[in-house]
Amino acid sequence: MADEVLVELQKELETAVSNADSTLADSAGEKQRRELAASETKTKLEAAETLEGCRLMAMTEAKATGKTNEAALVEAKKQEKFTLAQFDKVSARKTSLENIISTQLEPMKSAGGGKREINVLTKALGAFEGFDASLMQALPTALAKPAEEYTSFNQLVVQQFEEALSAVKSKLDAELQTFDTAEKATAGEAAQDAYNKAKEAYESAHNEHEEAVKSTAAAKEALRQAEDAQNSFDADMREVASKMDEANEALAAFKSGPLETFTELKNKETPAEPADQVILPEEVPAGTEDGAAEAAADGAAEAAAE
Fold first, then answer.
1. I need a labelling partner for 114 at 20 to 30 A (CA). Which of 14, 129, 176, 246 fits?
2. Buried b (16+ CB within 10 A) or exposed e, 104-122
């Protein structure tokens, strides 16, 4: 178990040394990558700032268009309201005149009228332009009589009055025609539609500008980080070199310390078995082989005799 722990520690130290060494070996590539990253993020920031400027301009234009259309809408509504009011006013005058003719003038032309009734009529008619003053002075005399009692002068007065009355009515009709309420309403609707579209365009431009502002902020932060990394390159490489030195020292200390001690202790606990010894026969000098044989034979004879 202890040997596994030591092996793992040694592996970690060797890996640290190897990683630091690889980083230092690739320092030129790392420097180039950091410079490239800074350059690319700077380009992206410039693009983001350009886009933000364009969208700010679009938002400003959309806002101005919205204000213009809003003013046009207010004016269109004002004109529509004024036209409708004028139309109602002239229409009311025409209705009033028609009522005067039907309820006062016509009965008076047939049966004649009293002084008070004639005064009320001439006063009511005086509110309308188009009647000659001398004609209005002669009219009460004619209207005081029934139609069958008219003199030729009375008939002439009434005839001229009816012609003047017809001209007044025609003038009112023509005036009503000038108030094209439908056209004004259509213009108001068009102005409202233009204003609504301009408002939507401004809101869209505003949202797009907000997105561009966020993108610019993100690009600025990315550039800051890239430039920090570029500026810290030398310091980072020194730190890697320092860590590699520390790792080498730690590895050397580990090998000469804990690892060497463990190896020695392990060898003492389990000594190596000696190798088997092979006993070789002694060499017999040349010329003594016969003597040795004889000696052996004599010894065997002696042993048998005993």
1. 129
2. bbeebbeebbeeebbeebe
Residue 163 exposed, middle or buried by CB count within 10 Å (0-12, 13-18, 19+): exposed
Structural domains of the chain, count = 1
Q: How far apart are the first and last CA of the chain?
A: 69
Domain around 226: 1-270
91: which 2 tokens? Answer: 């229409």
Domain assignment of residue 182, yes or no: yes
Kindly report, residue by residue over 79-134, the tens digit of the pLDDT.
888 888 888 888 898 999 899 988 888 888 888 888 899 899 888 988 888 888 88
Say if pTM beats, i.e. exceeds, 0.85: no
Q: What is the pLDDT of residue 113?
A: 83
Give the C-alpha separation, 102 to 191, whole Å: 43
Report the distance separating Cα 120 and Cα 126, nearest Å.
Answer: 10
Contacts of 231 (CB under 8 A, 6+ apart): none
Residues 6+ apart with CB under 8 A from 115: 140, 144
Length reported for the chain = 306
What are the C-alpha distances in Å from 148 to residues 112, 116, 157, 188, 220? 10, 21, 14, 56, 103
Let me know if residue 299 belongs to a domain: no
Q: Which of 172, 161, 169, 170 is nearest to 118 (CA)?
A: 161
